[in-house]
């Protein structure tokens, strides 16, 4: 019973009981956080593996063994514990504020330079407390010496310090954020990092590192602000004999089908004088500039020739009479055409081309002509209730689409060219006259309409099930 009166007894019992219980509790907590993928797993692991055992050792030394806090072993343990607590604070700050930050929140967009400043301040305060409390150092004198040294270093490194100050002033003003697109005198790209010295721009051809002092002293354009206003302007040239209204309508229709187009805006085309036309295309992001411009110019080449226009003042000699006749003969058996019927139908058909990615027809459209695939591949797709695009079938040479033009029904699937596609087009009235004179052809087309409708319904049912 004499142990109960000893000053070390309760300290020893507290460590003997509290340490195992604490280790078990922290182990279970870490396992639970790890299963959830929480950012707090690392801080809890530090608490379990280092801080709790070091704290127990310090209690045993000072409480149970009555070792003076001014002895070297106690100071070493205390300093080690202080450093680990400092690491825990840094890890917890990063985990609670930034690792778990919601997408698009201010915590996620906060530049790394501010995090570095916060970490540096926390480390300075922690070291000052350790030196003052544990070792009894004169922190005031130390900070005075550091202040004088800082002045000397500031004069010696004024260029580097100037860049740091310029970066801080630039970030406090916040003319841009991480992820914004900047157009500067020397580069154009997306901001991916801002540190003590420079701003990093991802330009698409490499990483442009721009000193903050240069960026702060120059004028630049933030292409991402205000949001929803970014657009590109593409110039094209047509022949003077081309109808301006036809050119504007064709170019606007091509731009309106670009995948990079901003959904809440529509493109527009205006004559720019002489034979030049300027198409304004609203885009989601400056990152889409290059792909959108390239796709627009490529599709405009095909669309202009289909419309009989002269892009870049060039004539189209693809759909010659001999080539058209050759392609018509290739589908003569499908349409059950005689030689005389081919000669009569030849002036009424058109041989045209579509570029890769172009839509030959859109789901819900009412077709005005029937198209026969003569070269290339066409992908049929359908959109479900959620807007997801589902593949239905791939059309090859000899297949046809737009057959519902006979029944004047909207198509149930979209058709997109997988590569350059050549099609032979026959207007609805002409194919209707032909089908009315050939009951077997009308029956085959009706069967094809029903089969394609059933295929679309099966794809939608499989996706929803």
From TrEMBL:
UniProt entry tagged with the keyword Transport: no
Main localization (coarse): membrane
UniProt cross-references to InterPro entries, sorted A to Z: cNMP-bd_dom, cNMP-bd_dom_sf, cNMP-bd_ion_channel, LSM_dom_sf, MscS_beta-dom_sf, MscS_channel_2nd, RmlC-like_jellyroll
Residues annotated as transmembrane: 6-26, 47-64, 76-97, 117-137, 143-172
Highest taxon of source: Bacteria
GO annotation terms (biological process): transmembrane transport
Domain Cyclic nucleotide-binding: from-to ranges: 345-452
Keywords noted in UniProt: Membrane, Transmembrane, Transmembrane helix
SUPFAM superfamilies associated with the record: cAMP-binding domain-like, Sm-like ribonucleoproteins
Leader peptide range in chain numbering: none
Compartment annotation: Membrane
Pfam families attached to this UniProt entry: cNMP_binding, MS_channel_2nd
Any Gene Ontology CC annotation: membrane
UniProt KW Nucleotide-binding keyword: no
PANTHER family in UniProt: INNER MEMBRANE PROTEIN, YNAI-RELATED MECHANOSENSITIVE ION CHANNEL
Name the record gives this protein: Low conductance mechanosensitive channel YnaI
């Amino acid at each position: 019973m004499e142990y109960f009166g000893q000053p070390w007894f309760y300290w020893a019992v507290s460590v003997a009981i509290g340490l195992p219980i604490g280790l078990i509790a922290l182990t279970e907590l870490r396992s639970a956080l790890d299963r959830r993928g929480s950012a707090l797993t690392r801080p809890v692991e530090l608490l379990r593996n280092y801080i709790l055992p070091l704290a127990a050792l310090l209690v045993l030394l000072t409480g149970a063994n009555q070792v003076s806090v001014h002895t070297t072993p106690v100071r070493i343990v205390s300093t080690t514990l202080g450093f680990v607590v400092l690491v825990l604070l840094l890890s917890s700050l990063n985990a609670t504020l930034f690792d778990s930050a919601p997408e698009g929140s201010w915590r996620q967009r906060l530049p790394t330079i501010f995090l570095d400043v916060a970490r540096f301040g926390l480390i300075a305060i922690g070291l000052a407390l350790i030196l003052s409390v544990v070792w009894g150092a004169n922190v005031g004198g130390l900070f005075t010496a550091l202040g004088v040294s800082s002045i000397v270093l500031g004069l010696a490194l004024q260029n580097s310090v100037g860049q740091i100050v310029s970066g801080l002033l630039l970030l406090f003003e916040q003319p841009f954020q991480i992820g914004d697109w900047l157009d500067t005198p020397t580069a154009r790209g997306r901001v991916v990092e801002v540190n003590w010295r420079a701003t990093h721009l991802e330009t698409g051809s490499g990483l442009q590192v721009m000193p903050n002092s240069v960026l702060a002293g120059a004028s630049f354009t933030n292409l991402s602000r205000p949001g929803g206003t970014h657009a590109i302007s593409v110039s094209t040239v047509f022949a003077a004999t081309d109808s301006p209204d036809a050119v504007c309508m064709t170019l606007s229709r091509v731009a309106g089908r670009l995948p990079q187009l901003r959904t809440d805006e529509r493109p527009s085309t205006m004559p720019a004088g002489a034979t030049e036309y300027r198409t304004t295309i609203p885009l989601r992001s400056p990152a889409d500039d290059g792909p959108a411009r390239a796709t627009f110019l490529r599709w405009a080449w095909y669309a202009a020739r289909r419309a009989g226009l002269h892009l870049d003042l060039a004539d189209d000699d693809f759909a010659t009479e001999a080539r058209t006749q050759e392609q018509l003969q290739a589908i003569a058996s499908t349409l059950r055409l005689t030689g005389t019927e081919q000669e009569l139908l030849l002036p009424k058909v058109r041989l045209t081309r579509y570029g890769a990615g172009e839509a030959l027809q859109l789901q819900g459209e009412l077709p005005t002509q029937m198209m026969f695939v003569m070269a290339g591949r066409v992908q049929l797709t359908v959109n479900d209730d959620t807007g997801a695009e589902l593949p239905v079938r791939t059309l090859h040479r000899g297949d046809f689409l737009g057959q519902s033009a006979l029944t004047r029904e909207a198509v149930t699937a979209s058709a997109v060219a997988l590569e350059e596609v050549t099609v032979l087009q026959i207007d609805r009235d002409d194919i209707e006259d032909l089908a009315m004179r050939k009951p077997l052809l009308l029956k085959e087309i009706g069967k094809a309409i029903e089969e394609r409708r059933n295929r679309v319904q099966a794809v939608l049912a499989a996706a929803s099930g």
